[in-house]
Amino acid sequence: MILSEVDHKILESYKTVLEGLADYLGDGCEIALHSLEDYDKSVIKIVNGHHTGREVGAPITNLALDMLDKIKKDGAKFYISYFAKNKRGNPIKSATIAIKGEYERIIGLLCININLNMPMLDFLSVFLPNTPSNDQSTSELFSNNRETFFDDLLYQAKAAVDNDPSIKPSLHNRAIIEILYQQGVFNMKNAVEHVAELLEISKNTVYLHLRSVKGNSSETVE
């Protein structure tokens, strides 16, 4: 198969996806990116290749070809999950995801292999914080609608400001707005109006604080 320049760029963009997934899933997970341009050296990126002993330039596997054939026959979905064994005989849980290119043809495969022989504690350690305190963990907000999202963000920012004794009471609103500004909240539609309502201040006051924040000024706005 001859790939176009666009096809190559699409596959190239998946290399960062591999690194991100590997960082998230940990050392117990091998992730390989295959290009279908040359089956003899199809692996163009691999992370944690020690699980199968492969590296960049390795050929495609018979199982990957089998999964590709099943994906093509299915037509409705471009992925498949299954159990297999590596060459050491270790059980692995695998997933093969087809990558479509410029002309809607399959140009590559993203293959994920999780080593099921890895000690459970080692596997789970990547999902546990390094410190016993959750205070050091980043809190991600999951909301069903924009209003709840605003409320949650504002509550989080307000709590951070209220718990910081170095911030003068007269600068609390400005500090809250600065946090929201740094989080990109004001890129959302009607953000100024919503923040003004929640902080019980005028829209003009919010704009004044925003100008102060953008200008890195310490000007106090009552």
Automatic annotation (TrEMBL):
The YheO-like domain is annotated at 11-119
This protein's species is: Enterocloster lavalensis
The organism's superkingdom is given as: Bacteria
Tell me the ranges covered by the Transcriptional regulator DauR-like HTH domain, including all copies.
Answer: 164-211
Protein name, per record: Predicted transcriptional regulator YheO, contains PAS and DNA-binding HTH domains
The UniProt keywords, alphabetically, are:
DNA-binding
Instruction: Please verify whether the record's keywords include Hydrolase.
Output: no
Annotated GO molecular function terms are: DNA binding
